[in-house]
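comment on this one:
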Amino acid sequence: MVDKKDKITLSHSEIFLRKDGIVFISFIKDSAMDLNSCNELYVAYTELLDEKKYPFLYVIGDYVTFTNEARNYFSTKKGSQYSRVDAFVFTSLAHKLLANFYMKVNKPKIPTKFFNSKNEAEAWLTKYL
C-alpha cells in the first residue's frame, strides 16, 4: 500500500491537508498563477485529497499575480471540485481590488470570503467543518 502524501510543494505554492480538515494553500511570494498553474494545483488536490469537499484556506504571498484565466478557473466547477468553501488571506491593496473584481465578475459557485488575517479566516472556515 502506498502512503498518501500529506504535503505537496509546487513552484508557486505549498498544499497540505491539516489535521482539522482544512486544506491549506500558501502561494509563494512573487509567483504568477496562470491556467497551467491551476492545472498543477488540480493534480495536487487529486493526489492529496479524497474525493470529497473540504474548506480551503488560501494565503496569498506578496506580489502574487493571477491571470484572467486563473481567476476564471477558480470559479468553475472543476476549479472548486474539492472545495466546500474558500477563504483567501492577503493584505495588499492590489489583491483587495482584485478580490472585489473576482466576486463581481467571476461569481464563485461556492461560499468565498476574503480576510486580512489567517485567524479570522480560520474562525470563519470552522463553521464549515
Notes: The helical segments are 35-48, 68-74, 93-106, 118-125. The two ends are 28 Å apart (CA to CA). The first strand starts at residue 7 and ends at 9. The first helix runs from residue 35 to 48.
